[in-house]
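re: that chain from earlier
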Amino acid sequence: MKILNGIPEIEEYTKNCRSLITIGNFDGCHIGHQALIRDLLDWPNPRPETPVIALTFQPHPAEFFGRSGKIYRLQRLADRAASLCLHGASAVAVLKFDERIARYKPDEFIQKIIVDLFQTKAIVVGADFRFGAERLGTVKTLQEFGLLGNYEVKIREAVTMNGEIVSSTRVRESITKEADFLKVATMLGRPWGFFGTVMEGFKRGRQIGFPTANLDLGEIVRPKSGVYAVRVRLPGAAAKYDGVMNVGTRPTFDLVEPSIEVHILEQRDLNLYHEDIWVEPVERIRDEIKFNSVDELKRQIHLDCAVAKGVLNHER
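^ sequence. v structure.
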């Protein structure tokens, strides 16, 4: 995996060759993003040293302009880069989206970034690609300037699944609103999961016999509130453990702060504080509900663990 951070690293990487590039956010590296990379890999007659580069911007332009609130992502940047390189990208280039780039008119964006910085031989983008100040640049603009800039353009139509366009937004909705992880896996071409950092909690789970890892997900999207059967990979381990995850506010304890906590089945006395663990939701098994007593909650957790085991054994 190669990440090029900023203009100097990009210039060094591309100084002796022309590039095949695609531009986007690539959150989740779903099957539509994979198709862009595949088109570049299939480009006719590239020289052996010609790199395939995915260019992305940080922060997200919508966040920079304040067009949206905080954007919760499907992957951390490093995980996005790893996924793109796994599917064939030579490198992922990250440019800071700032006032200077935001002011570039479409022709300036093409000249300064596509032509001068990347020495682009060919570019593949989606049909809805927009760029430049006020998003005035379109795929037609790219094509019109292609002859002047001596680069080729391919427009990739949106990838669909059951008549629905595959997009990062649609994947997020399937996680946050539907908890449909089979659909998510189909759109991504793999199961979805996330890294969470284990933080200090109230230790209530430990007190009732079900120790949990309380997770800070940072910028990662939160699944829909409820109880889930999950698989967990611990730091330094290749194997995955079965687990139960609760997403919500723990109403039995009259708490209101949202939390995500994972109980790893048949594991005790794990010291994971400040470690990153990988969690892969498999199925949502019930809503989060308020119980009348802690004993009632404990009985339900026993049932949840049994249900989760059944789900996870079935999915192996």
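The chain has a mean pLDDT of 93.
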